Amino acid sequence: MSVEQRERLRGRLIELGFDVVRFAPANAAIDRGLRDWLAAGNHADMDWLARTADKRLDPQLVLPGAAAVIVLGVNYWPGREVAGTSFARYALHSDYHDTIQPALKAAGQVLEELCAISATDYRYYVDAGPVLERGWAAAAGVGFRGKNGNIISPRHGNWLLLAAILVRVAFTPDEPLCESEPGRTGLHCGKCRRCLDACPTGAFSAPGTVDARRCISYHTIENRGFVPRALRAAFEARVFGCDECLAVCPWNGFAQVGRSGLLARRHELAQLSLVELLQLTPEGFREVFRGTAVKRTKLVGLLRNACIAAGNVWCAGAASDLKERDAAVAELLRLARHESPVVRGHAVWAVRRVLGDEAGAAALVEARAAEVEPAVLAEFEGAA
Ligand code: SF4
Q1: What number is the average pLDDT over the span 6-23?
Q2: Residue 160 in contact with residue 143, Cβ under 8 Å?
Q3: In DSSP terms, which residues pair with 70 in a beta bridge?
Q4: What pLDDT score does 383 carry?
Q5: Whose CA is nearest to atom 5 of ligand 1?
Q6: Does residue 322 have a pLDDT over 60?
Q7: Quick check: 123 and 63 in contact, CB under 8 A?
Q8: Phi-psi region of 149 (alpha: psi -120 to 50; beta: other; left: phi over 0)
Q9: Is 137 exposed, middle or buried, given 0-12, 13-18 or 19+ CB atoms closer than 10 A?
Q10: Which of 171, 180, 215, 321 has its CA 20 to 30 A from that of 136?
Q11: Percent of the chain beyond pLDDT 90?
Q12: Which protein residue's CA is at the shortest distance from atom 3 of ligand 1?
């Protein structure tokens, strides 16, 4: 397609709400480090990443005849007033899977109209498909791959949600930020290493390499079981995700607040107190988090995370608000009898962390939470 046709398409896609629209040839060289990352076990138990590796590395396996990848970005920077909450910033919006998907469908219709193709000539994905969005984003010049592993846009900093359309139409490609090595990690980081140093759990095994087994985002969202004890204190008050390695990046200085065309703001979630989270019922969880990405962790996961956060916020000697702390302990003691062993185990851990070993054990006995099942007992002993 000519440059004029490409620009017309770009304009139409921006009208749909995308903040970035860039084009890469489907045979562009993209970051091939995925296999090494998987071989080192960095994906923890996210086996679907290993199962789809071939497709992620070769768009022809996803859409035979694919000639281009259109990379789309949605700016979700909420502004500085939303700093430092228990939720990663992207979670303080409507679920991007739900809201970007219809826009991608509309983008497909625009492609059909302008390129005279049918729906079988393209595939689109937002996060959940076998596509290496970040690799294509670097190839298309959306940004460069920072030492934090994220795509950093000169215009939007670290705050782009990425989607991709594979299409059987060749476009004049956009230039990457660096022609000779578009996928190089840290291309424009210089000597900076703020993200590597800021990670609360030391999850970077090398610049650009995140070990999910140590990553707070992985544990609070994807991990369905026990969180390793050694990591819990570093979670501090986080209950869903972590974007510390994104937030400290100096490239964010250029970011503008997102226009929210495709993402409705749910900033009120940041106001939920830990006690309110500990009190969540199945109905309450559904109601509060309907239409947000937080539902991915399910109620059990969120209660587990809230137990860890409560244990950290009110750990022995750190209490500033005794009334709030006592309310949290009452909820933790109730959760120490929860039907889920995962919730019970973390509630027990938190009670002991807040009250201290001796007083915590006594409170658990009094609350009849000390008659523990093997799974919880194992957790007590640090075996989980
Ligand atoms: Fe690169 Fe520094 Fe940003 Fe990390 S914080 S991605 S090292 S510029």
Answers
A1: 97
A2: yes
A3: 23, 165
A4: 45
A5: 249
A6: yes
A7: yes
A8: left
A9: buried
A10: 215
A11: 77
A12: 249
Token match 């869903």: residue?
Answer: 240
Residue 193 alpha carbon, nearest atom of ligand 1:
7
Give the pLDDT of residue 372.
Answer: 60
Dist CA 256 CA 79 (whole Å): 8
Q: Give Cα separations from 384 to 82, 119, 220, 237, 376 (angstroms).
A: 35, 48, 16, 22, 9
Q: Could you tell me the pTM of the whole model?
A: 0.92
**Are residues 122 and 59 in contact, defined by beta-carbon separation less than 8 angstroms?**
no
Eight-class DSSP state of 137: H
Q: Report the amino acid identity of residue 267.
A: H
Phi, psi of 279 (to 5 degrees): -90, 0
Q: For residue 340, which of 192, 206, 226 has the smallest C-alpha distance?
A: 226
Q: Cα(377)–Cα(373) distance, rounded to whole angstroms?
A: 6
- Two tokens at 97? 């899977």
Cβ atoms 293, 97 nearer than 8 A: yes
Burial class (CB in 10 A: 0-12, 13-18, 19+), 370: middle
The torsion region of residue 209 among left (phi > 0), alpha (psi -120 to 50) and beta comes to beta
**Tokens 């500990």 -> residue:** 278
One-letter amino acid of 75:
N
H or E element at residue 74: strand 68-75
- Beta carbon of 154 within 6 Å of any ligand 1 atom: no
160-167 and 144-145 strand pairing: unpaired
In the 8-state DSSP scheme, what is residue 221? I
DSSP H/E element including 143: none
Taking only the tens place, the pLDDT of each residue in 53-103 is 999 999 999 999 999 999 999 999 988 877 667 999 999 999 988 889 999
